[in-house]
Every structure is written in C-alpha cells, then in structure tokens.
Amino acid sequence: MNFIWQGIVEAFRLLIHGDPEMLRITVLSLEVSLGATAVSLVLGVAAGMAIGLNKFPGRKFLIAIVNTGMGLPPVVVGLVVMIFLWRGGPLSFLHILFTPTAMVTAQVIISLPIITGFTYASIQQFDAKMRLQIVALGASRTQMIWILLKETRLPLLAAVMAGFGSIISEVGASTMVGGNIMDQTRVLTTAIVMEAGRGDFGLAIALSVILMILVFAVNVILTLIQQQGKRA
Amino acid sequence: MTQKQDAGIHNVVSAENISVIIGNKKTLEVPLFHIQPNEVLVIIGPNGSGKTTLVLCLSLLMKPTTGTISYQGEIIKDPKQILQIRRRLAVVFQESLLLNDSVWHNVTIGLHLRGVKKAEAGVRAQRWLERFGVSHLAKRQARTLSGGEAKRVSLARAFALEPDLLFLDEPFEGLDSPTRQSMTSDFDSVLRETKTTTVMVTHDRNEALMLAHRVAVLIGGRLRQIGTPDEVFNYPVDEEVATFVEAGNIWHGKVISRNEGLATIEIGGKQIEAVSEFGAGTNATICLKFEDVTLVGENLTTSTSARNMLIGKITRIVNLGAQVRVTLNVGFLLTAIITRRSYEGMDLKEGQVLTATFKASAIHLIKQG
User: Fold this and answer.
1) Which one-letter DSSP state was computed for residue B23?
2) Looking at the domain assignment, is residue B154 inside a domain?
3) Which of A1, A87, B48, B352 is most buried, with most CB under 10 Å away?
4) Could you tell me if B232 and B277 lie in one domain?
5) Residue A230 — pLDDT band, cuts 50, 70, 90?
C-alpha cells in the first residue's frame, strides 16, 4: 500500500517542480474541457431558452431526447464522433480526428444536453407571472431573455458546473477521438488510464490528484461566483 | 350588457367581442368593455370568474381567442404596436414580483426598458419611493423586504412609469389588515393626485366602494353589471350579483297585487310591501340591506313610517365587533345589523320575540326568469 502514499508525494513533487509534461497535459485538459464547456454553454443556454419559452410541435419529444442525452455514455459519443471523422466517414474532409478539436467536439456532445436540460428546467421553474411582469414592464423579447438569464444565473452556474464536471472527468470519448498522443492529445484522464495500464500507479495517482485539484479549483471559483450572485 | 360611450371622447382602452377559450372551456366572454380617461374602474367577481384573464387581455399580456382590443380608438394588431402600447401601461400583480436585485434597480428597470434617460429615471424612482414611504429601502435587496414593503415597492415601480393606464390585480391581497388599510389609503390619495386611469381587480367590497368611479361585476366569465358603486351595490341586476355584492337579505317571493306604485309581495306565507313597478303575478328576488332593518320590542309603541312590520323570534346573534348581526324567524329568516350600543340597550337574547320594521322603499326587487 506504500505506492499510494508515494503517488501522493509524487503528485506534490510534480506540482512543486512544475514538470513540463505534466503542465502540458494539465493545460490541454483545461483548454479542451473549458473550450467545450464554453461552446456548450452558448448553444445549451440558447436551446434551453428556446425549449423553455416556446410551445411548438414535437417539444415534448425534444425534451425527452435532451433528458436522454444527459446520460449519454462518453465512450458511445466517442465512437460515433470517431465514425463520422474516420477516413470515408461523412465528416472525414474536416481532418480533425486525433486532434484537440475532435476532443472538444465529442465533449460538446456530452455536455450540451446537460446544460440544455438544466437551462430548460430553470426556465420552467421560473415564475410564469414574473415573466409576465417583465413583459409588462416594457421588455422586448430580447430584453426579457437577458433579464431571465440574470434572474436564473444561479441554476445556470449549476449547469456550467455539471457540464464541466461531466467532461473534465470523461476518458472514453477523449481516448477514442484524441488517441492519447503525447504532446498533442494527451489529457489528464487518458494519461491516468495509460500510466495505470503500465503499472505506474505512482504517476497515475499523481495525475489523479492533479485532476481532482483542478476540478475542485474550477468548482470553487464557480461556487464563489454563484454564491456571490445569491447574496447580491 | 352594453355601455354608453361619450361622443368625441376616446376611451383609453376598449374591448369588443372578446372571448378567451382555454382547453375546451370558454373562460371569458365580454361583448363590450370600455375604460374611460381618468376613471378608476374596479372589477369584482368570485374566484375563477375571469377577472385576471380580462386584465391580461386589456393590458395586452394575453391575446384573446376572438375579438379586438383598441387603444385610444385604434385597434391593436401589429406586434410592434403592442410593445409600444405596453410601454405606456403598467401592471401590478397580486404578488409583488420583484427581481432578485436591489429595490432601486427594481424601480428603475422598467424606465430603462422604456428608454427613459438615467437621470430622469433616478428622479422618478426617488420621487415614487418617497411617495410610498420606502425610499430608505432603496439599497436593500428586494428579496429581504417584508410583504408590505415589497408591495409598496411594486406600487412605486408602477407609478414611476407614469403610465397612461394602470392595471392592478388584487394588489393588496395577502397583507395583514392594518397594512392593507394604510396601503389602500395611500393608494387612494395617489390616485386622486395623479388622476391615473386605473383598472383594479379586488375581492374587497370596501376597497371597491372607496376607490371606484365604476364597478364591473364579472361572474362565470361574463360581465354581469357595470355601473357606479351605488348602482352595483344597491341595485344589483340579478340574484348572483346580489349574492356576490352582499346585498343583504335575499328572498324569493311573488307580487300578489300592486296599487299606486306599491307592490304587495308574498314571501313564505307572509306579506310585505315594496316600491315597485312589477305587476301582480311576477316572481321576484327581494333584496333588503341588513342595515335597513330596525329592531324594536315585541309590542311596537312608537310611531314609525316604515310600512313593513314583522314579528319573529331571534334565532341567531353574531357579534361583529362594533356591530351585531341578529337573525329572526318571521315566517322566513330576516337578518338585521344593529349597533353594539342598541344590542346592549335592548338586552337581546336568542329565543326572544322582536318586531322588525323596514321601509317599502328600502327593498330592491329583481324580476326572476
């Protein structure tokens, strides 16, 4: 069991000494997952608002699809994206397989339903009379959506946290569409799987500790923003 | 139901043949409804009678299933026109509905949305927060306010918009009695100062009597009566309206004869006289206000001009505070409201025999069928 302690010590040694490879992996992990969260946030909030504010044929079916999408297995998403981007696939002309762009694409597909679902739910829960009051105050549709976004900022930040949490920790899709190529597509989760497979538990634990610190740090920042919003 | 429209004067808002169907149910059907400049029109009616739906249609927050809404004589169709007109109206709902922000932001946001310049918005917000006695709360978060404070802020927000037409949907509901009275009184004086054209929904008879120039009674989605408070509360047009406006004693009877404007009516085997145009054989609903009944001892010794005298046994006495409600069985149940001083002076008890008197002119008759 000594290797567990050694792993933790190794993690702090790597952190303190700023190991260049570890830094590259960490930065890429952040770039890919934060990028995917940002894209999902824009698309998911727009989609959630559209579903929450409008009545249209097939709306219930769409909500069912979004709800199902919230539990999409990353490895299945990875497989589908890989098939689309593979030589001869419908999107092969993009030539992005085994690049960070492909990883971002897969992670957007994983986190988009989560952010859409959270946004839709927060709009549904928003007092219908409050919406009427905002309109009665003289808001145009755009102004009303902006006010709604401000009013639902707490659940929306929860959506961001859930979306980010779901992709920073996924490994299936990143491995399949990224390929875990050193200095190109290797991120923390794929590196952990690789090191554990090699039997280098110390390094795997070290990378896990870094991943946990990263997730914790991002969530602390988001929670602080959220709670500041609650006080404001 | 029709309403007169003064020639040459544009109504602020008119609704013609509007109906609202939700699911398969017609929740509102109003052939004609006008709101005149500078008037306070109070809409009353039981729960689920369509009052809120009517207010939402008139304030352009809901599109009626059929019919048209006109604003100052012009029929509203275009969505852009709707937004422009909405920006000349203000609506206060039963809940205060304040945004999760400061009181100041809540009062100024409507002004910003309507393009009022920041300096002007600030002046107006300050003026109306002061007018409703909540300027000291300007920096407070709206969600930390008490119910009464929040209501004052929502009223300040509405008046700061300086609307052409103000809609209020049961604005004082849920407030404790002293807060409600003080708020109604403040609101009344603001309305008198500003002469803001107002449409208000309320359940409270006293609020309607205090504030209204006209009262509209909505029952079952239909406009049953509209008129001055005196007309509606003293001369209800049908039994449902009479019941809702608490017209007092309501009995059913038949006119058995009429002589020189006085009808003799039989109720439960007893006869009373009422000033009426109804001829013999007419079935009628008879309304008599509790306050119009005088109670005297069993044997009437003093002279009275009242044409009706009925002797009966007290069946129930209800203490109302400063007043007492006494119900007698005179062949049918007759209720009177007397002052506490009279009640104590007469030393009334259940089972005691009394004489009830009332004038023929105090009775309001409604033809049945």
Assistant:
1) T
2) no
3) B352
4) no
5) low
Residue B369 has pLDDT above 90, yes or no: no
Residue bearing the bigger pLDDT, B120 or A4: B120
How high is the pLDDT of residue B302? 58
Examine the domain organization and report whether B45 and B192 are in the same domain.
yes
Residue B82 lies in a domain: yes
Give CA–CA dist B265/B206, Å, rounded.
32
Q: Residue B147 to residues A144, B15, B133: CA-CA distances in angstroms?
A: 25, 33, 14
Q: Is A131 on the interface with B (CB under 8 A)?
A: no
Q: Which CATH architecture has domain A2-231?
A: Orthogonal Bundle (1.10)
Q: Note the pLDDT tens digit of each residue in A150-193.
A: 999 888 998 999 999 999 999 999 999 999 999 999 999 999 99
- Of B244, B274, B298, the domain-final residue: B244
Q: CB within 8 A of A36, min separation 6: which ones?
A: A103, A104, A107, A108, A110, A111, A167
Put simply, the answer to whether A136 touches B59 (Cβ < 8 Å) is yes
CA dihedral B111, B116, B119, B120 (to 10 degrees): -80
The domain that holds B265 is classified in CATH as 2.40.50.100
Residues of A in contact with B90 (CB under 8 A): 136
Q: Identify which of B86, B95, B141 has the shortest CB distance to residue A136.
A: B86
Enclosing domain of residue B47: 13-88+163-244
Global pTM? 0.84
CATH number at B43 reads 3.40.50.300
Contacts of A134 in chain B (CB under 8 A): 99
Query: Is B125 inside any structural domain?
Result: no
- Residue numbers of B between 151 and 190 with CB closer than 8 Å to A: 157, 161
**pLDDT beyond 90 at B13:** yes
Among B244, B279, B297, identify where a domain stops: B244
CB pair distance less than 8 Å for A129 and B95: yes
One domain, residues B81 and B198: yes
Q: Residue A119 — pLDDT band, cuts 50, 70, 90?
A: very high
Could you tell me if B285 and B213 lie in one domain?
Answer: no
A130 vs B97: CB contact, 8 Å cut-off? yes
Chain B interface, mutation test: which of A122, A129, A133, A148, most B Cβ atoms within 10 Å? A133
Chain B residues inside the 8 Å CB shell of A138? 83, 86-87, 110, 113-114, 161
Asked if residue B194 belongs to a domain, the reply is: yes
What the block records as the tokens of A26 is 């960490």
Residues B232 and B361 in one domain: no
Same-domain pairing of B197 and B277 = no
Predicted-assembly ipTM surpassing the 0.90 threshold: no
Q: Is there a single domain that holds both residue B236 and residue B266?
A: no
Alpha helices (runs of H) in chain A, residue ranges in sequence order: 2-17, 20-53, 59-69, 74-85, 100-125, 128-136, 141-151, 153-168, 172-178, 188-198, 201-231
* Distance from C-alpha of B73 to C-alpha of B11, rounded to nearest angstrom: 7
Q: Does the structure show a pLDDT above 60 at B4?
A: no
